[in-house]
Write a structure and sequence with these properties.
Length: 247
């Protein structure tokens, strides 16, 4: 029942517009529990996101890949938009017809994206709090981690451009160990983390596209904040490709 405003890092009650919570809450948690407590909360959210994504995959298999009506609708839509480089004729009729025929799947889809999106926002704010406290309390550690991370990424990118260059072997724990330090210091982006791996899901991009255009009419623009928000709940535009690695 809240709306999150990214520019202010604050949740507001959707009806009363009163502040519900903000990044100051994490500062209080940091003061109370310390860095280890906040980092533990971050890891807890990681496991919760993994669980939600696993539930999402089960839901996707059940209501999409095993439903003949939904599959026929998606197959017809995929055929109608080919070739992809041209403008689709009668696009309103084609798109909204597909949305209407798949209406029953959007409630579960919306709930999954909402849960994961909200936890991702919390993880972003936790990372900001951890990074701020690390730079304030131990600036030398923060600088060393940032430099080491930058150097490792540069070496990895160079390896993929030229495979003859060195790269950490599978039995080398350097990347695993440095990741734990980076997350504890808030030097990471939760939206770029791969939480689970799965086989390639049929029609996954098409379903995401249909879900997006089905929810866009519910958004309204706020001139005062220069942002768009949902009339009833926050719609966190989250691409599951950032959380799910297609094997």
């Amino acid at each position: 029942m809240t709306c999150h405003i990214d520019q202010l890092n604050t949740w507001y009650d959707i009806k009363t517009h009163q502040e519900v919570t903000s990044s100051h809450l994490l500062s209080e948690i940091q003061t109370t529990l310390g860095t280890f407590g906040v980092n533990g909360l971050d890891r807890l959210l990681c496991f919760m996101i993994v669980k939600e994504l696993q539930n999402f995959l089960s839901m996707f298999q059940k209501i999409i890949l095993r439903d003949r009506t939904v599959q026929d609708t998606l197959k017809a839509l995929t055929t109608a938009v080919i070739p992809l480089k041209s403008i689709v004729a009668n696009l309103n009729k084609i798109y909204f017809s597909a949305i209407a025929k798949t209406q029953k799947i959007w409630t579960s889809y919306f709930e999954a994206i909402m849960k994961v999106g909200q936890m991702q926002i919390l993880r972003q704010q936790i990372a900001n709090e951890l990074n701020y406290s690390c730079q304030f309390d131990s600036k030398h550690l923060a600088a060393a981690l940032e430099n080491l991370n930058t150097a490792l990424l540069a070496d990895i990118k160079a390896h993929y451009q030229d495979p003859s260059l060195p790269y950490p072997k599978e039995d080398n724990t350097l990347l695993y160990e440095i990741t734990a330090y980076l997350e504890a210091a808030g030097i990471h982006n939760p939206l770029n983390k791969i939480y689970i791996t799965t086989k390639r899901l049929s029609y996954f991009p098409v379903v995401n596209f249909l879900f997006l255009i089905s929810q866009l009419p519910k958004l309204q623009y706020n001139k005062n904040l220069a942002v768009q928000f949902c009339q009833h709940q926050l719609l966190k535009s989250l691409s599951f490709h950032h959380c799910i690695l297609m094997a």
